[in-house]
Structures are given as C-alpha cells and as structure tokens.
DNA sequence: CACTCGTGGAGAAACGTATCTCCAAAGGCT
DNA sequence: AGCCTTTGGAGATACGTTTCTCCACGAGTG
C-alpha cells in the first residue's frame, strides 16, 4: 500500500524516505488534490459524501495524522492553554502544595479537554526560555501579584489572559474570584453566633488578592463591632512558619477564643498549638480554616472549613478563556477592546470582566459550642448562583 | 521605529497590517538578511559579535518573539511532553486523586522545565481529538495497563514513550518502576519482626503492574513462610469501596494481626475499621500502608508508610524521555532500534530499558509493638542507590 | 441559443522559521 | 602574480497544512 503512495509521487522532491504519510501522499493515493483531502477530512468544502468517505478511508489506510505544527502555523491556533501559578515566593513550584491548586488544576484540565484544548503547566518565574517556545492560545494565571510583568507581557502580545483571583494592576482579559469579603464576614458572624468574644486571624504576608481582601475584611469587621484585631501574619509558602505563627497567636496575652486561619495547614497547626496550651476545641477555642482537604472531617474534633470551590473556579476560568480565544477576530492583534467577544461588550454599560463565585462553609464540631441548641444553618455569602 | 520596518518591506506582499514583528521585519530593520537574524539570535552561524549584538538589539526593540509554531514545523521539535495516567477505571481524571500522582507530576514538570521542555497533561481515554492536535516530542505514561492501544500507537508513530511502572505488553522506549517485590517483602519482614503472626493484605482489582507485582510478592511470601493468605481486593479508584474492604478484612474469622494496605487511603480506613472492632493499634493490630501523604505522621497513632519516592521517579522518567528524544536521529522514523540513544546500546549485552528505583519505609508507631526493645532500624530494599 | 447558476474540484499562495548551498572579498602563502 | 583559506553573509528551499481564488461543466431559464 505504501508502495503505491510512493510511486505515485509526482516530483520526487529530493530523495524522499518513507517517513510519515503527509496530506500529499493521501491526495496522491486517493487520486484527488490536496485541497480535496483537507476539505474532506475537516468537513469543510462542498463535496459529495462519496468523495469524502473515500478520502477518509484512504487517509485511515495510510495512517495519516495531520501535523499539528503545520496546522498551528497556518491557523494560528494551537489548542494549548498555559496554566501558571505566580504567588508564594520564589519556590520552583508551589503547585499541588495546597489542595486548592490541585483541585483547581484538575478541574481546569478537564474543562479544557472538554472543549478540545489541552493545558500546559508553566512556571511563572522562569524566563522567556520556555514561554517563548510554546504556541499558546491563551493563559490561565492563578493569583497574579500586583504588576505581574509576565501577565503584562502576555497581554500586550495579544494572548488572552484570565486570572483566578482578582488582579491588582495587571490588565487581564477577564478574572474570576471568590467573594472573599463576604466569606470572611460570614465566618466571623458564624463564630460570633457560636459565642466567640474575641476572634483571631492567622493570615499571610503576601500581597496577593486573597490574603489582602480577607485581611481587610477582618479588620473592617473588627472596627465595626469594636473588637481589637488579634492576628499573626507569616509567609504562607513556609509550612514551618505556619506552625510557629499558630503557636504565637495562642501564646498572646490577649489570646483569642476563636481563630480563623486563611491557609490550608492552619487547621492542624492550630489544633496542635491548642493541645500544647491545654485548650479544648471547641470548648475553649473555636476553630475555622480555609481548606479543600477532607482530612478535617476526620480530625479530633472535626474542623469547620471554608471551601473556595476550586473546581467551579477552574471550570469557569477555562471557559471564560476559551470564550475569549474563540471570540477574537484574528486581525488587528494589538487592539485591546477586540479581545473581548461581542457578548462581553453588547450590554449598555458593559459588565466588568470579573465574576464572583460563592464559597461554602462546611460547619463541623470545631466551631460549635456544645450547647443544646440544634443545628446551625451555614451562612451563605450573597450572590449565590 | 516600526514605521521604518514597515516602509522597508521589499514586497508589500498583500496589505500587511502591523501585526506582530516577524523575523523579516527584524532583518529589514537591521539591514541584514533573514539568515543573519536567525543565526544571530540562535548563536549559530559565524558572525562577528558586533553584528550579533546589533541584531539582538533590534529584535528586542521591535519586541520580536519567534513563532513557536513555525519553529516547531521547521525543526520537528516542539519542546512539549505529554503526561498521562491510564489506570483506574474510566473516570475522567484520577489525577491528583492520590498524592503519589500529584507529587510525581510536580517533579516531572520541574525536571522537564529544567531541560527546556513543558508538560502537557492529557487524558489517556480521550480519542485522538486532542492527542492528534498537539505536537508532542515524547510522552510519559503513568501505569499503563497491558496492551494499551494508546501507547502502542504513539510508539508506532515514532513518539518516544517512557512509562512509570513496568509495562505489560506495550512496547516502550524505556520504563522506570519501584522494586515492588522487594518493598513488599521488606514490609512483611518488618511486620514479622514486630511480632505479626498472620499478615493481611488490602489490595486492588486492577491489572496494573503495581497491584499485580505487590500481590504476587505477598502470595509468594505467604507460600514461603507457610502462612495462609488473608487479603481483600477492591477497585482502587473507588474510595468508598476501600473503606468497605478494610472493614471486611477485619471482620473475617481469620482476622489478621497485621495489615498492609496498597493504597493511599487504606491507612485511615483501616484505622477506622480497627476502632469499630475495638482493636488497638499497634497492640492488637499492626498497620502499614503505601502513601505519600504526611497526614499519617499525625494520626492517632501515627502510621508506618511506604513511600514510592514519586519525586525521584518523576524526575528519572522525564530525564530518560528527554535523553531518548534528543538522541533520536530524525531520519528513518520507523526503525525501533534507532529510538535509543547510543549509550543505551553500546554495552555488550545491552542493559534492559528499565530502571528500578528504591522505596522508603517510614517506620512509625503503628508497626512497632510497645516492647522495651529500643529502635528498630527500617529495612531497606536491596539496590538502594 | 445565450445566459446564469450550482456543483465539484484544482492551483497556488501564504504561515514564519531554520538551514543548506553558495558567493564575494580579503588576506596569507609560495 | 596566482592560489588557497577564512570570514561574513545572502538566496532559496522546505516544513505540511489551510484557504482563497478560480475554472470547467452540465443543467435549467428566458
């Protein structure tokens, strides 16, 4: 069979070896033109079904696989989406360090594949070495810090960028975030209702939006209800520092009787610190932390957690990005406004390119005093979809 | 500046908009040929440093970024490596379900980036839709089942494939695996030494190498020491089934006094089951499970775990793959033998394309009887590097 | 009979790079 | 002076698609 394809080559260009079958070989073997093969395989031209199926059959027989590189070069689309996480220090990779990232990445991958795109995991720190060598149709950025140069450059060069986490000063095509303020206020109210008089916060030193908004919400709440803020901040990327900070928080003279920890490991750290100081949870100390891990369902006692719904976020981010990619008129690349598909701009005032997603408070024993009071319904932030 | 580049275009091909600067624009602006630009930027030709730096400067000024698609088409290398996990049912994505995968993927990503490659996460199940649309230089396959059609096709089409887990019948370029037999034997000996008389196994129903080799090692050991095998198997991708199987194992009339669980969640499941039956760990029941999770350091009691060293595996797999990629003579694609770089074949008998990596047993309270005997040094499997 | 019109398909121009081949000029040597 | 070698660089081709343009032809229509 391959012999037929070989001998029918019109021009023996150079000395062509029998490498992989190209579209030319298929065309020759089927006795049609290249155009017809392309159209038949992509369902594009006006061809009778008989020609179409015949070409398809020949292609199958020759084991023809279109060259992704050539297609990308021609069409300008690679079907590849970059995924990067920027925040938390210069560590090579914080990925999957927290369950949040793992979950989010998984959901994003699934959503992308469902629409025919694949995800490429890229480091935010690395130089253009890698970024420049890959044809990306768009990029998802997790938690970009203010003034992220990477995001700016991508955006400037016409690559759509959607961020998980409201960006500070970087221009992005769109962003998705939780309503962190509502979430924190909900938790503080929940703890107050459970009897807390002085609520402490375990927070981070980074400048990312999550940390900033959450802390601000806490401080605002304190100001409103007239409580003196009681918090400790530490570099969130350092697990050891988290344990130390938890200990410090409970060692203070103005020790809180309830604590909310912003990061995943804070729950176990606080629990350990509480044991060290002989504090019973929840009797002496109410505990809530933000985590996607289900280990908190099995701790002693089980700990109330705030879920940021990473799966929903990952899915939404990817869908927004692909919408933007497929809505772009591949023409005047630089024009920023063009990056938005029509439906983003039709509305009179134009909705902002941001979407707030609800969080979910999973109430467990650690945030409920053992009062005979029955169940406490978990507060939901406004804007629930 | 861009105006100069525009007006110096020799042929105004069509009506060229000022899209992105191409290599032609740089050449025109610098007053040299395309060849010179390419050579200058890639450090390839024989050019005086002065020309080189001048071209580089002009390129920088124009914000020139080479087209990855064109480069890939021309060179045949994309710098992209596929990463896929095959095993465990038809679920959309088992990725990061177990900490092993997450760790392994993270290490693989890092290693690849370190050598200038990026990883694309792909599903093993999906049709050629996605696989065919991406130019892959090679693929890492985690735990391929026997006769994996995907692996066969990749291999046949000339894409190097390296698998994590010794493949059954698929042809691969190379593979890396733990010495599962040695690991299991080491654990069984460890448990025996701690006083176990009847050791049970919690295993899976899949046909992947890990499950098969581990189970066979267990059965062989039983035959050797004359113990009746006591085990339960369940579909490893279903966490609920794991809890049920753990319960079943401890409910048996010939209840074991020590159990090794092959999968990550088995530790907590077995612990829970033991509590249900009033068994104290380690007094009434010795426990070991295979897991990369550090939650077992904090359980009550802490549980001895076997680590498969996913980071080391991920790194090794990627490095082997890239070695194969870069050693390939891009010529007679089909020839299988050529896929191996020279150093794999020079040795007389030729070492097999497989590498066994050591595991590590992390001994904790759950596998040590409270005897006054002091510390038990953890047994290491042979072949430790 | 001249004409439009729809059908089926071929030709050729990109897409943007890397690289092979070849050439001109300037020494250095006998 | 003639020849060889090195330096610096230009030209052209190929990588394998997609797609725009255009053509031939048979059938209906006035």
Number of helices of chain A: 13
In N-to-C order, the SSE pattern of chain A is HHHHHEHEHEHEEHEHEHEHEEHEE
- Beta-strand share of residues of chain A: 5-15%
- Radius of gyration of chain A, CA atoms, in whole angstroms: 27 Å
Largest sheet of chain A: 6 strands, parallel
Helix fraction bin of chain A:
25-40%
Strand order of the largest sheet of chain A: 2-1-3-4-5-11
Considering residues with a beta carbon less than 8 A from a beta carbon on another chain, report the largest interface and each chain's count.
A-B, 54 and 54 residues
- Shape verdict of chain A: elongated
How far is it from the N-terminal to the C-terminal residue of chain A, by CA? 58 Å
Give a count of the beta strands of chain A, DSSP E runs of length 2 or more: 12
Mean pLDDT of chain A: 83
> What is the oligomer described by this structure?
homodimer
Give unreliable regions of chain A as ranges.
1-17, 328-352, 372-379, 381-385
Summing up helix and strand content along with how strands pair, one would put the structural category of chain A as alpha/beta
């Amino acid at each position: 069979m391959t012999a037929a394809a070989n001998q029918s080559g019109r021009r023996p260009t150079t000395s062509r070896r029998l490498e992989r079958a190209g579209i030319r070989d298929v065309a020759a073997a089927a006795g049609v033109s290249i155009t017809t093969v392309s159209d038949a395989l992509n369902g594009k031209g006006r061809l009778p079904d008989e020609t179409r199926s015949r070409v398809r059959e020949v292609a199958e027989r020759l084991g023809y696989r279109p060259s992704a590189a050539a297609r990308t070069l021609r069409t300008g689309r690679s079907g590849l989406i970059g995924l990067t996480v920027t925040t938390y220090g210069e560590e090579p990779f914080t990925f999957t360090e927290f369950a949040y990232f793992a979950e989010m990445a998984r959901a994003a991958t699934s959503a992308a594949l469902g629409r025919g795109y694949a995800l490429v995991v890229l480091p935010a720190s690395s130089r253009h070495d890698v970024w420049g060598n890959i044809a990306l149709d768009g990029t998802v950025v997790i938690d970009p810090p203010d003034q992220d140069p990477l995001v700016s450059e991508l955006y400037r060069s016409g690559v759509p960028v959607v961020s998980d986490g409201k960006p500070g000063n970087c221009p992005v095509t769109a962003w998705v975030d939780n309503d962190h303020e509502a979430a924190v206020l909900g938790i503080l109210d929940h703890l107050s209702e459970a009897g807390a008089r002085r609520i402490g916060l375990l927070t981070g030193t980074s400048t990312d939006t999550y940390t900033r908004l959450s802390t601000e919400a806490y401080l605002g709440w304190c100001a409103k209800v007239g409580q003196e803020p009681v918090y400790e901040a530490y570099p969130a990327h350092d697990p050891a520092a988290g344990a130390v900070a938890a200990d410090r928080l409970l060692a203070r003279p103005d020790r809180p009787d309830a604590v909310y920890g912003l990061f995943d490991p804070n729950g176990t750290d606080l629990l350990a610190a509480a044991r060290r100081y002989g504090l019973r949870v929840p009797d002496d100390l109410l505990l809530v932390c933000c985590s996607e891990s289900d280990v908190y369902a099995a701790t002693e006692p089980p700990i109330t957690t705030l879920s940021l719904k990473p799966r929903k976020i990952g899915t939404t981010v990817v869908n927004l990005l692909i919408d933007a990619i497929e809505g772009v008129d591949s023409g005047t690349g630089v024009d920023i406004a063009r990056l938005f598909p029509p439906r983003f701009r039709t509305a009179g005032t134009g909705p902002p390119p941001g979407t707030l997603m609800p969080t979910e408070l999973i109430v467990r024993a650690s945030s409920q005093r053992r009062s005979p009071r029955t169940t406490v319904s978990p507060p939901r932030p406004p804007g629930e979809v």
